[in-house]
Amino acid sequence: MTKDSKVVHDETLHELIKAGLQIKEPLFIEKIIFSSDEGEVHVHIDFRPNAKFACSECSKEGLSASGTDNKTWQHLNFFQYTCFIHMNAPKTKCPECGVRTWIPLWAREHSGFTMMP
Ligand SMILES: [Zn+2]
Predict the structure, then answer these.
(1) What's the 99 CA to ligand 1 centre distance in angstroms?
(2) Distance from the alpha carbon of residue 43 to the mean position of ligand 1, in angstroms
(3) Which of 20, 30, 96, 104 has the smallest number of Cβ neighbours within 10 A?
(4) How many CA atoms are closer than 13 Å to the CA of 26, on its beta-carbon side?
(5) Has this prediction a pTM greater than 0.85?
(6) In angstroms, rounded to a whole number, what is the distance separating the alpha carbons of residues 71 and 11?
(7) How far is 78 from 50, CA to CA, in rounded Å?
(8) What is the mean pLDDT of residues 97-108?
(9) What is the pLDDT of residues 33-87, one digit of tens each?
């Protein structure tokens, strides 16, 4: 964050990013921070309480989040900006696979996003 960073409230931009990242319920955009001097967009994603997720291993549906894993993904060419997605990704407890971190759509193959270490 620099002095040039600002929280974006523009609804159109929110809709655009929501569509671009395919953000759907139970996920939502918590906030978008735009830094024009650094050429960065930071999108913070959260999920609704009591949301259900599928196991990332066996795809079993309807699992509750038990804890979260703080993750950041980066896209190098999101319009002309470097886009960072920040999310406390839910961890699911699957009866078959145990605890797994849920994998959002933008983190899957060919999305253009890479996870930051
Ligand atoms: Zn499973």
Answers:
(1) 8
(2) 28
(3) 96
(4) 15
(5) yes
(6) 25
(7) 31
(8) 90
(9) 989 888 999 999 999 999 999 999 999 999 999 999 999 999 877 778 888 999 9
Q: Residue 113 and residue 96: Cα distance in Å, rounded?
A: 29
The secondary structure element, H or E, covering residue 18 is helix 11-20
Q: Alpha-carbon distance 12 to 32, whole Å?
A: 12
What is the distance in A from the centroid of ligand 1 to the CA of 6?
40
106 Cα to the center of ligand 1, angstroms: 20
Looking up tokens 């650094």 gives 38
Between the CA of 93 and the centroid of ligand 1 the distance, in Å, is 8
A 10 A CB-CB count for 60 gives 15
Q: CB of 43 within 8 A of CB of 23?
A: no
Domain around 18: 5-115
Which two tokens mark 75? 């896209």
Contact call for residues 114 and 74 (beta carbons, < 8 A): yes
Task: Count up the domains in the chain and report the number.
Answer: 1
